[in-house]
Amino acid sequence: MRRWGVLGAFCLGLMGCDGALAGGESEPEPEPDVHEPEDFDPSGSYPTQPEPRPDVEPEPEPEPDALSSGFISDPDGGIESYECDLYEQDCDAGEKCNVWANDGGNAWNATKCVEVDPSPDLAGEECEVEGSGVSGIDSCEAGAFCWDINTENKGMCVPYCQGSPNVPTCGNPHESPAAGKEFCICLPACDPLLNDCPVGCGCYATDSRFQCVPDASGPDLGLFGDPCEFTNACDPGLSCTGSEYVECDGASCCTYFCSLAKQDACPGEHICRSVYEEGQTPPGYEDVGLCLLPDEE
Question: What is the pTM of this model?
Answer without folding.
Answer: 0.62
